[in-house]
Design goal:
globular; 245 residues; mainly alpha
């Protein structure tokens, strides 16, 4: 009898060995960090400001600063939306577990939460769209800059616009909507530091606190939907297309 060739024995042993399937990446570890960061940021605002509008403001600031960088994951749209959901979950967890129902009733808090989720979708899709058009790693920073400019318009823009424009902008501002819906919270622009140093709203520029949460939700949700359509039309970023050519 002739001994099998070494090549034949090696090939037969390889064929007999079961093929190892690649391990699927786990989702929970990827989402733990954005959830923990948003929870810690909002909890710190709750500790510093107490059960006031400051906790709501802290949650909105957490979304603005944390959501874009955690959402940035090129060519991984599912991971991007999951990370943004983890950030909003951390914020809502603090709101709903630490704010008393007497001053923050369930009905108004539900409306505030819905507006905040729409605002979160807007920022998430804006980050994804910015990456698609070729901004690359600078996309989160650009989105944070735009979000801060929008969030702080009552400070730097109010004195340069009409009362009608201020009213329209206030209707889509998530914090001013929350201030209007949560009637137990003191109006932000009547706070001493805001009234004295920060804004002219409701002083030289008449402006009532808005309560039209449906309009706020529709505007931010509509922008997010339009950006989502654009992302589906262009599934790859301009940078990835250039590299593949």
């Amino acid at each position: 009898m002739t001994a099998p060739m070494p090549e034949q024995s090696a090939s037969s042993s390889n064929a007999a060995a079961p093929a190892q399937t690649p391990r699927k990446p786990t989702v929970l570890p990827d989402l733990a960090l954005p959830f923990a960061a948003a929870t810690a940021f909002t909890a710190l605002a709750r500790v510093e400001s107490g059960a006031t509008l400051g906790t709501i403001i802290g949650g909105h600031v957490a979304i603005i600063l944390l959501l874009p960088p955690f959402t940035f994951a090129p060519s991984r749209p599912r991971r991007q939306l999951q990370a943004s959901a983890a950030v909003i979950a951390g914020v809502l967890a603090v709101w709903w577990t630490t704010l008393d129902r007497a001053n923050f009733p369930i009905g108004p808090m539900l409306r505030v939460s819905i507006c905040t989720i729409a605002f979160r979708l807007n920022l998430a899709m804006l980050t994804i769209a910015a990456e698609r058009i070729g901004l690359g790693a600078s996309a989160p920073g650009c989105v944070i800059t735009i979000a801060i400019a929008f969030f702080t318009w009552p400070i730097w823009l109010a004195e340069h616009i009409s009362a009608a424009t201020a009213a329209r902008l206030a209707t889509i501002h998530p914090t001013l909507i929350a201030n209007g819906l949560l009637t137990s919270t003191f109006p932000w622009f009547e706070q001493p530091i805001a009234y004295r140093d920060l804004t002219v709203l409701n002083q030289t520029i008449p402006c009532a606190l808005p309560t039209n949460w449906l309009a706020c939700t529709a505007v931010h949700g509509g922008i997010a939907a339009a950006l989502a359509i654009g992302v589906m039309v262009r599934p790859k970023s301009l940078v990835a297309e250039k590299q593949s050519q």
